Amino acid sequence: MQNALLIGLSRQMTLERQMDVIANNVANANTNGFKADHSLFEEYLNSNAREDNFIGSDRRVSYVQDRGTFRDVGQGPMEPTNNPLDMAIDGNAFFAVQANGAERYTRDGKFSLNSTGQLVTSDGNLVLGTGGPITFQPTDHDINIAPDGTVTVLEGTARTDSIRGKIRMVSFDDPTKLTKLGANLYDTGSAAQQADTKSSVRQGYIEKSNVNSVGEMTRMVEVMRSYTAIANLLQQQSDLHKSAIEKLADVPA
Positive or negative, the Cα torsion across 122, 86, 91, 75? Predict the structure, then answer.
């Protein structure tokens, strides 16, 4: 296959994978605490390929390939909900939760109580405190979460606060190394973790997705146009080769 066709094909393959990343961002534009992904590209020089127009040329053919993706860990906008169990983290920390018997991490603070009074995520995973799962009593009311994550309530007719635990917040040396597991959960991956003391909890708020919907839709249109332009170019190249072969066939022997 001609080098020009290979170059166009390599670009189309990277555009297809870039479209997958953009589509996933758009699909999660309304997912609480979602962090957008973006594609990385690099030049790939094929040492065995040379430019077709130069016999003996040492100029190598340059292809494009997608190196991978990187995660935008920037904080999303805060949305008030007036629900005392909803929480948003102001800072770089993550909530620690128990999912499938293992500790996982999330930025989605849409919490509620299960049938046994334990604080859980929207998927039913236990929210972990510094001493384990946080459990409320049936008579608890006036729930308050302090900026440091301390959970206090008024129990029954008592007028003094009772402590039910402290929300465990974890930060990472490089949060971009966290592994996405789906369902808005992360695994540590290769990132080192530590207890976070700089971030704060905002009660009655939810952190929304940090996806820029307008920007993602613009990139989607750009990718579609680039893909179409390359497809047209490849078709023209193919037609040119076809025409050359037909003309050679008409040359008298």
Answer: positive
